[in-house]
Amino acid sequence: ERYEEILRAYSMMSPDQALSVGKELLRHVSECIVAVSRQCALAFSAAPSHESASDWHRKAQLRDLCRSMDPSHFVACTAQLYEHLCDFLYRHRFLCAWHVERERRAAEGDAGDAGFREVLREVLTELSASKRNVWDRIQQQVSLVLMTLDFQYPALNEDSFLHILHLTQLLIE
Fold first, then answer.
1. Which GO biological process categories is it annotated with (predicted)?
2. Mind listing the pLDDT tens digit of every residue in the chain (173 residues)?
3. From CA 84, how far away is CA 7, in angstroms rounded?
4. Taking the model in full, what pTM does it have?
5. Any idea where the domains of the chain sit in the sequence?
6. Most buried of the four, 16, 40, 46, 134, by CB within 10 Å?
């Protein structure tokens, strides 16, 4: 498995460098949550008429993208965004489970070297401690989107609003 190969490579580094593996992984996850949120909103937004589309795509922030979105795209954008954000939660859970299983196998004799086992433990510790941070980052993105979208009637009809409300409830549960 490629992930295991990467962890093995880190285990060959000096201990102080290997300690940062979990932190780097989580930094990457956090950056990806922000980038995916932006890309999702970008797919449903339109550049203002006074700006070139390429400049807009390059520099627009999530807030700008949400403000420029046609209300008819709110539900589709929210659904797609939530799907991607849930995927981050599932992947985080999968990584934690993978580390638990790999440690179990190491304890049963498929141990490998001590440096690799130490990296496994360190990354699992970071992953376990970071579950709340991943959820908080996701909540920040959802809050930003929901606070920025124009929910004013008649721009957004009641059915669309209720659909977004339902999707948000599903994400939270």
1. endocytic recycling; retrograde transport, endosome to Golgi
2. 788 888 888 888 776 666 678 888 899 999 999 999 999 999 999 888 888 888 888 899 999 999 888 888 999 999 999 999 999 999 999 999 999 998 888 777 765 577 788 888 888 999 999 999 999 999 999 999 988 887 776 677 788 888 888 999 988 88
3. 25
4. 0.83
5. 2-172
6. 40
